[in-house]
TrEMBL record:
It is found in: Cell membrane. Residues 93-277 form the Protein export membrane protein SecD/SecF C-terminal domain. The gene is secF. Forms a complex with SecD. Part of the essential Sec protein translocation apparatus which comprises SecA, SecYEG and auxiliary proteins SecDF. Other proteins may also be involved. Keywords: Cell membrane, Membrane, Protein transport, Translocation, Transmembrane, Transmembrane helix, Transport. HAMAP family: SecF_B. Part of the Sec protein translocase complex. Interacts with the SecYEG preprotein conducting channel. SecDF uses the proton motive force (PMF) to complete protein translocation after the ATP-dependent function of SecA. The keyword Transmembrane applies. Gene3D superfamilies: Multidrug efflux transporter AcrB transmembrane domain (1.20.1640.10). Its main location: membrane. This is Protein-export membrane protein SecF. InterPro entries: SecD/SecF_arch_bac, SecD/SecF_bac, SecD/SecF_CS, SecD_SecF_C, SecD_SecF_C_bact, SecF_bac.
Protein backbone atom coordinates (compact mmCIF):
# COMPACT_ATOMS: atom_id res chain seq x y z
CA UNK A 1 0.00 0.00 0.00
CA UNK A 2 1.30 3.44 -0.96
CA UNK A 3 2.25 5.80 1.88
CA UNK A 4 0.92 9.02 0.37
CA UNK A 5 -0.54 10.72 3.45
CA UNK A 6 2.62 10.25 5.52
CA UNK A 7 4.51 12.37 2.96
CA UNK A 8 1.96 15.19 2.89
CA UNK A 9 4.59 17.82 3.76
CA UNK A 10 6.61 16.87 0.67
CA UNK A 11 3.61 17.19 -1.68
CA UNK A 12 2.50 20.48 -0.12
CA UNK A 13 6.06 21.85 -0.28
CA UNK A 14 6.37 21.09 -4.01
CA UNK A 15 3.11 22.87 -4.72
CA UNK A 16 3.95 25.76 -2.40
CA UNK A 17 7.28 26.39 -4.17
CA UNK A 18 5.61 26.55 -7.61
CA UNK A 19 2.76 28.78 -6.38
CA UNK A 20 4.97 31.11 -4.32
CA UNK A 21 7.40 31.60 -7.22
CA UNK A 22 4.43 32.28 -9.48
CA UNK A 23 2.95 34.78 -7.02
CA UNK A 24 6.33 36.48 -6.84
CA UNK A 25 6.38 36.90 -10.62
CA UNK A 26 2.78 38.12 -10.58
CA UNK A 27 3.55 40.66 -7.86
CA UNK A 28 6.64 42.04 -9.60
CA UNK A 29 5.81 41.63 -13.31
CA UNK A 30 2.08 40.97 -13.35
CA UNK A 31 0.26 38.68 -15.75
CA UNK A 32 0.63 39.01 -19.51
CA UNK A 33 -2.92 39.67 -20.69
CA UNK A 34 -3.81 38.90 -24.28
CA UNK A 35 -5.81 41.00 -26.65
CA UNK A 36 -9.14 39.71 -25.32
CA UNK A 37 -8.49 41.42 -21.99
CA UNK A 38 -6.45 44.53 -22.73
CA UNK A 39 -7.90 45.53 -26.09
CA UNK A 40 -6.24 45.96 -29.47
CA UNK A 41 -6.64 44.97 -33.11
CA UNK A 42 -7.39 41.66 -34.82
CA UNK A 43 -6.44 41.35 -38.51
CA UNK A 44 -7.05 38.35 -40.77
CA UNK A 45 -5.48 37.71 -44.16
CA UNK A 46 -6.45 35.15 -46.77
CA UNK A 47 -3.17 34.20 -48.44
CA UNK A 48 -4.95 32.18 -51.13
CA UNK A 49 -2.70 29.13 -50.83
CA UNK A 50 -0.65 27.21 -48.30
CA UNK A 51 2.18 29.35 -46.89
CA UNK A 52 4.99 29.53 -44.37
CA UNK A 53 3.77 31.33 -41.24
CA UNK A 54 7.29 32.60 -40.55
CA UNK A 55 7.14 34.70 -43.74
CA UNK A 56 4.10 36.62 -42.48
CA UNK A 57 5.58 36.97 -38.99
CA UNK A 58 8.71 38.53 -40.48
CA UNK A 59 6.60 41.14 -42.26
CA UNK A 60 4.58 42.02 -39.14
CA UNK A 61 7.73 42.28 -36.99
CA UNK A 62 8.86 45.24 -39.06
CA UNK A 63 5.93 47.21 -37.62
CA UNK A 64 5.29 45.58 -34.25
CA UNK A 65 7.48 43.28 -32.13
CA UNK A 66 4.72 42.31 -29.69
CA UNK A 67 1.99 40.39 -31.50
CA UNK A 68 0.34 36.97 -31.76
CA UNK A 69 -0.35 35.12 -34.98
CA UNK A 70 -2.24 31.92 -35.75
CA UNK A 71 -2.38 30.00 -39.01
CA UNK A 72 -5.97 28.96 -39.75
CA UNK A 73 -7.01 26.30 -42.29
CA UNK A 74 -3.67 26.47 -44.18
CA UNK A 75 -4.62 29.56 -46.20
CA UNK A 76 -5.63 32.08 -43.50
CA UNK A 77 -3.58 33.83 -40.84
CA UNK A 78 -4.92 35.83 -37.90
CA UNK A 79 -2.77 38.56 -36.32
CA UNK A 80 -3.51 40.05 -32.89
CA UNK A 81 -1.77 43.10 -31.48
CA UNK A 82 -2.40 45.93 -29.04
CA UNK A 83 -0.05 48.32 -30.86
CA UNK A 84 -0.91 48.19 -34.56
CA UNK A 85 -2.24 51.42 -36.08
CA UNK A 86 -4.28 51.82 -39.26
CA UNK A 87 -1.14 52.95 -41.10
CA UNK A 88 0.74 49.87 -39.86
CA UNK A 89 -2.03 47.58 -41.06
CA UNK A 90 -2.06 49.25 -44.49
CA UNK A 91 1.71 48.80 -44.75
CA UNK A 92 1.48 45.16 -43.68
CA UNK A 93 -1.27 44.57 -46.25
CA UNK A 94 0.93 46.01 -49.02
CA UNK A 95 3.93 43.90 -47.98
CA UNK A 96 1.85 40.72 -47.77
CA UNK A 97 0.30 41.51 -51.15
CA UNK A 98 3.75 42.02 -52.66
CA UNK A 99 4.93 38.61 -51.44
CA UNK A 100 1.68 36.71 -52.01
CA UNK A 101 -0.14 38.08 -55.05
CA UNK A 102 -3.40 36.24 -54.28
CA UNK A 103 -3.62 37.48 -50.68
CA UNK A 104 -6.32 39.78 -49.34
CA UNK A 105 -7.31 41.42 -46.06
CA UNK A 106 -10.53 39.66 -45.02
CA UNK A 107 -11.17 41.08 -41.55
CA UNK A 108 -10.06 43.95 -39.32
CA UNK A 109 -11.56 44.35 -35.86
CA UNK A 110 -10.79 46.68 -32.98
CA UNK A 111 -11.35 45.49 -29.39
CA UNK A 112 -11.66 48.28 -26.83
CA UNK A 113 -10.07 48.15 -23.37
CA UNK A 114 -13.50 48.51 -21.77
CA UNK A 115 -14.68 45.31 -23.50
CA UNK A 116 -11.50 43.59 -22.31
CA UNK A 117 -12.16 44.61 -18.71
CA UNK A 118 -15.75 43.36 -18.92
CA UNK A 119 -14.53 40.05 -20.35
CA UNK A 120 -12.03 39.65 -17.51
CA UNK A 121 -14.70 40.33 -14.86
CA UNK A 122 -17.12 37.85 -16.41
CA UNK A 123 -14.38 35.23 -16.61
CA UNK A 124 -13.67 35.59 -12.88
CA UNK A 125 -17.40 35.35 -12.13
CA UNK A 126 -17.68 32.18 -14.22
CA UNK A 127 -14.82 30.49 -12.33
CA UNK A 128 -16.22 31.50 -8.93
CA UNK A 129 -19.74 30.35 -9.84
CA UNK A 130 -18.49 26.96 -11.06
CA UNK A 131 -16.42 26.50 -7.90
CA UNK A 132 -19.28 27.35 -5.52
CA UNK A 133 -21.71 25.11 -7.44
CA UNK A 134 -19.33 22.15 -7.18
CA UNK A 135 -18.78 22.78 -3.46
CA UNK A 136 -22.53 22.61 -2.91
CA UNK A 137 -22.91 19.47 -5.04
CA UNK A 138 -20.07 17.56 -3.38
CA UNK A 139 -21.22 18.71 0.06
CA UNK A 140 -24.66 17.21 -0.62
CA UNK A 141 -23.45 14.13 -2.51
CA UNK A 142 -20.67 13.23 -0.05
CA UNK A 143 -19.99 15.48 2.94
CA UNK A 144 -18.82 19.06 3.51
CA UNK A 145 -15.22 18.04 4.30
CA UNK A 146 -14.98 16.26 0.94
CA UNK A 147 -16.29 19.41 -0.74
CA UNK A 148 -13.78 21.65 1.03
CA UNK A 149 -10.87 19.36 0.13
CA UNK A 150 -11.98 19.23 -3.52
CA UNK A 151 -12.30 23.02 -3.74
CA UNK A 152 -8.87 23.51 -2.18
CA UNK A 153 -7.38 21.20 -4.82
CA UNK A 154 -9.15 23.21 -7.56
CA UNK A 155 -7.73 26.45 -6.16
CA UNK A 156 -4.33 24.74 -6.20
CA UNK A 157 -4.73 23.88 -9.91
CA UNK A 158 -5.78 27.43 -10.82
CA UNK A 159 -2.80 28.94 -8.99
CA UNK A 160 -0.40 26.47 -10.62
CA UNK A 161 -1.72 27.42 -14.07
CA UNK A 162 -1.44 31.13 -13.27
CA UNK A 163 2.08 30.57 -11.88
CA UNK A 164 3.27 28.84 -15.08
CA UNK A 165 1.74 31.56 -17.24
CA UNK A 166 3.28 34.30 -15.11
CA UNK A 167 6.77 32.74 -14.98
CA UNK A 168 6.96 32.08 -18.73
CA UNK A 169 5.09 35.28 -19.72
CA UNK A 170 2.44 33.42 -21.72
CA UNK A 171 -0.44 35.73 -22.72
CA UNK A 172 -3.78 35.03 -21.04
CA UNK A 173 -6.83 35.21 -23.31
CA UNK A 174 -10.39 33.91 -23.40
CA UNK A 175 -9.14 30.43 -24.37
CA UNK A 176 -7.28 30.32 -21.05
CA UNK A 177 -10.54 30.89 -19.15
CA UNK A 178 -12.28 28.15 -21.15
CA UNK A 179 -9.34 25.87 -20.34
CA UNK A 180 -9.58 26.68 -16.61
CA UNK A 181 -13.26 25.73 -16.55
CA UNK A 182 -12.47 22.51 -18.43
CA UNK A 183 -9.64 21.69 -16.02
CA UNK A 184 -11.91 22.34 -13.03
CA UNK A 185 -14.39 19.81 -14.38
CA UNK A 186 -11.69 17.24 -15.16
CA UNK A 187 -9.91 17.69 -11.82
CA UNK A 188 -13.09 17.41 -9.78
CA UNK A 189 -14.04 14.23 -11.66
CA UNK A 190 -10.64 12.69 -10.90
CA UNK A 191 -10.91 13.73 -7.25
CA UNK A 192 -14.41 12.30 -6.88
CA UNK A 193 -13.11 8.91 -8.03
CA UNK A 194 -10.78 8.82 -5.01
CA UNK A 195 -13.43 10.20 -2.65
CA UNK A 196 -15.98 7.67 -3.86
CA UNK A 197 -13.53 4.85 -3.15
CA UNK A 198 -12.95 6.28 0.34
CA UNK A 199 -16.70 6.26 0.95
CA UNK A 200 -16.98 2.67 -0.27
CA UNK A 201 -14.08 1.57 1.92
CA UNK A 202 -15.74 3.09 5.00
CA UNK A 203 -17.91 -0.03 5.11
CA UNK A 204 -14.80 -2.00 6.16
CA UNK A 205 -13.06 0.73 8.17
CA UNK A 206 -14.12 -0.08 11.71
CA UNK A 207 -10.49 -0.44 12.86
CA UNK A 208 -8.79 1.57 10.15
CA UNK A 209 -7.46 5.06 10.83
CA UNK A 210 -8.23 7.97 8.51
CA UNK A 211 -4.65 7.86 7.20
CA UNK A 212 -4.80 4.13 6.45
CA UNK A 213 -8.16 4.49 4.74
CA UNK A 214 -6.89 7.34 2.54
CA UNK A 215 -3.73 5.46 1.59
CA UNK A 216 -5.70 2.34 0.70
CA UNK A 217 -8.17 4.29 -1.42
CA UNK A 218 -5.42 6.16 -3.30
CA UNK A 219 -3.56 2.90 -3.93
CA UNK A 220 -6.69 1.37 -5.45
CA UNK A 221 -7.34 4.33 -7.79
CA UNK A 222 -3.87 5.73 -8.63
CA UNK A 223 -3.31 3.47 -11.66
CA UNK A 224 -6.65 4.53 -13.15
CA UNK A 225 -5.89 8.22 -12.58
CA UNK A 226 -2.43 8.06 -14.14
CA UNK A 227 -3.53 5.96 -17.13
CA UNK A 228 -6.45 8.31 -17.80
CA UNK A 229 -4.35 11.45 -17.65
CA UNK A 230 -1.67 9.90 -19.89
CA UNK A 231 -4.19 9.22 -22.65
CA UNK A 232 -5.50 12.79 -22.39
CA UNK A 233 -1.99 14.31 -22.31
CA UNK A 234 -0.89 12.33 -25.38
CA UNK A 235 -3.95 13.56 -27.30
CA UNK A 236 -3.49 17.16 -26.17
CA UNK A 237 0.20 17.11 -27.04
CA UNK A 238 -0.65 15.93 -30.55
CA UNK A 239 -3.22 18.73 -30.87
CA UNK A 240 -0.70 21.26 -29.54
CA UNK A 241 1.98 20.14 -31.98
CA UNK A 242 -0.10 19.72 -35.13
CA UNK A 243 -3.06 22.10 -34.76
CA UNK A 244 -1.56 25.56 -34.12
CA UNK A 245 -4.89 27.34 -34.56
CA UNK A 246 -6.17 26.05 -31.18
CA UNK A 247 -2.81 26.03 -29.39
CA UNK A 248 -4.04 28.80 -27.07
CA UNK A 249 -6.60 26.30 -25.75
CA UNK A 250 -4.56 23.08 -25.74
CA UNK A 251 -1.57 24.70 -24.00
CA UNK A 252 -3.33 25.63 -20.72
CA UNK A 253 -5.22 22.33 -20.86
CA UNK A 254 -1.93 20.42 -20.85
CA UNK A 255 -0.73 22.31 -17.79
CA UNK A 256 -4.06 22.05 -15.99
CA UNK A 257 -4.70 18.36 -16.69
CA UNK A 258 -1.27 17.37 -15.34
CA UNK A 259 -1.76 19.60 -12.29
CA UNK A 260 -5.27 18.20 -11.81
CA UNK A 261 -4.00 14.62 -11.75
CA UNK A 262 -1.32 15.58 -9.24
CA UNK A 263 -3.75 17.44 -6.99
CA UNK A 264 -6.32 14.63 -7.04
CA UNK A 265 -3.75 12.21 -5.62
CA UNK A 266 -1.40 14.36 -3.55
CA UNK A 267 -3.43 17.42 -2.54
CA UNK A 268 -7.18 16.72 -2.28
CA UNK A 269 -7.02 13.53 -0.19
CA UNK A 270 -4.33 14.81 2.23
CA UNK A 271 -6.48 17.93 2.69
CA UNK A 272 -9.47 15.73 3.49
CA UNK A 273 -7.41 13.77 6.04
CA UNK A 274 -6.34 17.02 7.70
CA UNK A 275 -9.93 18.27 7.84
CA UNK A 276 -11.13 14.92 9.17
CA UNK A 277 -8.51 14.82 11.90
CA UNK A 278 -9.17 18.45 12.76
CA UNK A 279 -12.78 17.44 13.36
CA UNK A 280 -11.56 15.05 16.04
CA UNK A 281 -12.51 11.81 14.26
CA UNK A 282 -9.54 9.45 14.42
CA UNK A 283 -11.56 6.39 13.41
CA UNK A 284 -14.17 6.12 10.71
CA UNK A 285 -17.55 4.53 11.23
CA UNK A 286 -19.06 2.22 8.66
CA UNK A 287 -21.31 3.87 6.08
CA UNK A 288 -25.02 3.51 6.61
Amino acid sequence: MLKIIEKTKIWFTISAIIIVVGLGFMATRGLEYGLDFKGGTVVQFNIGKDFNKADIDAIVKKYDKDFQSNKVNNTFIEIKSANLTSDNISSIEKDVKAKFKESSLTNQENIGAAIGKETRNKAIQAVLLATVAMLIYIGIRFEFKFGMAAILSIVHDIFVMLAVYSIFRIPIDSSFIAAILTVIGYSINDTIVVFDRIRENQKYARRMSVTELANASITQTVARSINTVLTVVITLFAVYAYVPSIRNFSEPLLIGIISGCYSSIFIATPFWVMLKKHGGKKKLQPAK
